[in-house]
Structures are given as C-alpha cells and as structure tokens.
Amino acid sequence: QVQLVESGGGLVQTGDSLRLSCAATGETSSTSNMAWFRQAPGKNREFVAAISWGGRTTFYADSVKGRFTIARDNAKNTVWLQMNSLKPEDTAVYYCAATHSWGGRSFMPMTTSYNYWGQGTQVTVSS
Q1: Spatial distance between the Cα atoms of 111 and 3, rounded to a whole number of angstroms
Q2: 72-115 tens-digit pLDDT
Q3: How far out from the chain centre does Cα 84 lie?
Q4: Cβ-defined contacts of 65-72 (< 8 Å, 24+)
Q5: Residue 121 β-bridge partners
Q6: Which residues pair with 103 in a beta bridge?
Q7: Rounded alpha-carbon distances, angstroms, from residue 87 to 18, 28, 92
C-alpha cells in the first residue's frame, strides 16, 4: 500500500510559479513510479508528468513541456512538480499518483496505469 498526500496548491497570477509536493508513505513508496495528473471542472483527468522510481526517466504532457519539472527525492519519499510560467488553462485540481508498473510513453499517461492516488490540491491561475 502507498499513501499519497499533496500540498502546495494555491491562487497565483499568470506567469507566476508554484511548487507542488507529494509525500508518499508505505512500504514500497520509494520504489514506485510516480506521476502528476490534473482535472479541471467539467473535464477528464489528464496526464501532466511522470517520473521513474530512480528518477532517471521523465515524461511530460506537451502542454506543460518546458514549463513544468517533475523531480523526486526517495530519501524523503517526496515528489515535486515545479510549475513555472503558469497560465489560466493550468487551473485544475492536481493529483499525485503511484504505480509499481512501468511502461513507455503510451502507458505512463494513462490513469488506469496507477494504483494509488492522493486527494488532490487546487491550483488556480488568474489572468
């Protein structure tokens, strides 16, 4: 079992930066592959970024590539999402997710690839 708790959301203006954190607990949390998803009102949950358990491999959605960075520290059982140059369309509830499986670019962005989810943290970007 892996438990995930997100933090760091808030209300910011266009162009601002924000860093989300995901604290993971559980026996296998440090060997889990992790990801961030987001869900805006009335929309499906969408993939944002993923990182392998060792931190060597990352994937990003095209909409955030070059602006967002995913990173992790297994000693602290924490995954971060650094979000720069935020836009109003980034407004959503952001969720941390974990899986013990690993696949390629077609696997990691799928919500069904993940076994564990956090409760989410709200990010609102005003124009």
Answers
A1: 17
A2: 999 999 999 999 999 999 999 999 999 998 888 889 999 999 99
A3: 14
A4: 70/34, 70/35, 70/36, 72/34
A5: 94
A6: none
A7: 11, 35, 11
Strand order across the 3-7 sheet: 3-7, 18-25, 78-83, 68-73
SS (H, E, C) 29-97: HHHCEEEEEEECCCCCCEEEEEECCCCCCEEECCCCCCCEEEEEECCCCEEEEEECCCCHHHCEEEEEE
How many CB atoms lie under 10 A from the CB of residue 58? Answer: 15
Cα–Cα distance measured from residue 61 to residue 83, given in angstroms and rounded to the nearest whole number:
13
Task: Please answer whether residues 124 and 91 qualify as being in contact, where contact means their C-beta atoms are separated by less than 8 angstroms.
Answer: yes
DSSP at 19: E
Residue of 36, 72, 59, 43 whose CA lies nearest to 106: 59
